[in-house]
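Worked problem 6 (solution included).
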Amino acid sequence: MLTNRATIADVAQRAGVSTATVSRVINNTGPVSEQTADRVWKAIGELNYAPHGGARELAAGGRPDTLGLILPTAGGYFFSEMLQGIESAFGQRDLLIHVTNAPANEREAFFLPLNEYNTAGMLVFANSLTAEALAALYERELPMVLLHCSPPPGLALPSVVFENVGGARRIVDHLIEVHGCRRIAFLAGPEGFEDTGLRFEGYLRSLEAHGLPYNECLMGQGGYDDRLAETAVSQWLTEGLQFDAIFAADDASAVGALTALRKAGKHVPGEVALVGFDDAPLSRHLSPPLTTVRAPIVAAGAAAAEKLLRLIETGIAGEQTMLPTELVIRRSCGCKE
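Solution. The predicted structure is:
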């Protein structure tokens, strides 16, 4: 395995040309003088540079069949639905899936099992790779599309995200305007996730629009995990914290909150209104059925896969696609559906 893999930027620097010129020489896609081409090929030989395999196949008129997906975890309804969308768009192409802890630095990024040598392009889920690792892969010209996060500054990577702020604000507006809730607790997602911050922003915007103060005591960590959420809500109840509603940043957290409230003898929605985010398959079957924000998980997977295919085939995939969310009214907020 190579321990110091050269990049196209290294070749360009060695040859004294731009990366675009190196690309034209490798793929024979534009006029380059013989003298310049010789310098590029000499630099490629000296650095042992290997162009991206998928790009070479496309330059020859082929169509790559193997694509990659990098995830921080692979369990739960969210990932199974996302995979449905990805597979529907990829069709008969092979899909390599790698579950990883984010590489800490550029050097670790070179040793990812998925790279330009075995995949024509990659879908990268939020928080699967550090900004430094993304930058290293970007420099190696590996086509990438980000799922559920925006690109780091300076990287022109296409992405697919949900309308998180608007969806969160609408559901908190509903609690305030329809059900008269005034002390709305919030169960946040994992720290460092873009969705976590945006859903919290929507929560704050709704409070501000209705003249309600933000109370830090009503903020807890749900972590997109039912057990963490149950622990957080149980602690609130033990401490005697007063609240008339809970907005969980995802439906798994809402399930944990519901469990804690039931164990404490609290009636939902009679004593505490409860709402979530995502519209997981289980949500409609809870007792009471969960009011939530429907996020198009399957559509997001399909949209990201389609972007990646366009990026590989044309070099262009647009910037960010934001998919709309929708308020789904059920009984857990106090409505009768």
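Discussion: Confidence is low (pLDDT under 50) at residues 53-64.
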